[in-house]
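Predict the assembly for these two chains.
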Amino acid sequence: MDRRVKVVFGQAVTAKIIADASDHLAGEDAIAGLGGLHGFTGWRGPWLTDSGGYQVFSLSALTRIDDEGVEFSSHIDGARVHLNAEIATDIQHRLGADIIMCFDECTPFPADEDRIETAVKRTIDWARRCKREFSVLGSQLSADNRQLLFGIVQGGIDPELRRRCAGQIVEIGFDGYAIGGLSVGEGHDNMVRTVEFTVPLLPRAHPRYLMGVGMPVDILAAVRAGVDMFDCVLPTRNGRNAFAFTEQGPLRLRNSVHGDSTEPVEPGCDCYGCRHFARGAIRHFFNSGEMLGPILLSLHNLRFYQRLMANIRKHIEQGDFDAWAAAEMERYAWTDNK
Amino acid sequence: MDRRVKVVFGQAVTAKIIADASDHLAGEDAIAGLGGLHGFTGWRGPWLTDSGGYQVFSLSALTRIDDEGVEFSSHIDGARVHLNAEIATDIQHRLGADIIMCFDECTPFPADEDRIETAVKRTIDWARRCKREFSVLGSQLSADNRQLLFGIVQGGIDPELRRRCAGQIVEIGFDGYAIGGLSVGEGHDNMVRTVEFTVPLLPRAHPRYLMGVGMPVDILAAVRAGVDMFDCVLPTRNGRNAFAFTEQGPLRLRNSVHGDSTEPVEPGCDCYGCRHFARGAIRHFFNSGEMLGPILLSLHNLRFYQRLMANIRKHIEQGDFDAWAAAEMERYAWTDNK
């Protein structure tokens, strides 16, 4: 993958791809009937769906996992849900995302070596099954509606397991390659070390995607290591919780210090909230439970991440990314949640 | 007031004036410090604030009312709040709305004749005190920041009390005149009869404002009677509760009948929601507690009311309002909540 393609995928991170997880979206038939995710949400840009592997891990309502697949209780209605490679691929196919992900097993941090090794074996086996299922489904699609299937590399922070998993996943062959199983509590340094080790194992000609990351300092370090795309809930989840990202540092808008402030959240920002509202007003919205607060800060944080990614692309194109990123990582040291 | 001015005020109803009630907005000092309501909210168009009289009535946490004013427990923190003509005027002045309202006593429906008569006497006395207080405050304002003070006519559905109150309020003299105390359970016919009786008692050279109304059929009947402006929570409150107004009839978006619908809420509508989302998707947002549902239907209902008011102005200008309105009132008969 040359630098130019990297730029395109970099833009996708916050601006063009809205990531979603299949098992959070009950009723794939209803969504498929309403024009798939694009028609259902009104978002005409690219969609990426996750397979449900991470969500099974994060919701921890697991009741059974074996080589075949997983069975768990829905966090919505308690119903027993069966998910495996074929089902996860089929659901994502029907949802109609542009990029869909292999079904994988994500391990917690820390985890026993045995458990990680078993998860890696399953992730490889399931990737093979996903590709086979995808081939069958993909043949039903028209040429202008082609989905991409990405493989996922697991292996915790163990170099040997990462190497083994990456080798097998690349051999199976996918449209893009993701590094999964990070941002689960291992901390910034472990994460960066694992990313720097794993990225060179993935082909440059295909997009390389770091899942569930992250804070600005994490993204800068991962791009430096060669990562092309990301997904993360931070801009909107933090926005809903009154936390604003700014180039000048974090703002927690519930704090009384903002009560009288007539400043925008981030001076110079062109987002809707910064153009129309003072910090004092946004603090009032949060403290009085007015949904305008979460809306405005979510918009602001997305705009902040768009600017961050645009700056990353600009400095890659200018050829001075490494020097610029080093300074930026100092600026965003507060986002290093190790 | 000629037809042209009526058009301008008609536009104000849903598009340009956002009504608010002083006692719902604790912290007028904070808001004043953040640039008043215009600066605080980012809404640069006209603002109208109510005096708190109706809110005292509707919240029913009254503990004392006499000729001096009212004392009640705040619905927010339970603190005792004292409100009277001077305080209500002063708060609204500091909030910086373009139009502020006299402090009045609103009676429930039905109410004893004695109670309504006492409320009318107080409303007249308080209007006099509001105008006096407003004169003192108004002299501190610059010429380009002039507020308008509107008087309010009370009197329930009793023609004699309405006549007496209107005569006194007009004699005191205000920038505009409101009909208060309706839309409190008296029903469409009683409301229309009272409006038709009261409007001719108010000078044509000043805007005439029907407070807290209403459904499309109520607005059409009131404009026919000569009313120029309205305020109402219906577009947004109903929107938040999954109720959509359309020219083809009401839609309740939680109903399962909409689950598979790929139609927009109102075909042909240019609002954001109708341009981007199907009924089936909006139903899903409501059923899953996603705030996009209330947002989209609030926007749609506001757009619906803007179109209704634009059509009213157009037919007033064309000179065929009465014939057109008669047909429209048939169309919106379902909004007659008598």
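The longest strand of chain A covers residues 148-153. DSSP finds 14 helices and twelve strands in chain A.
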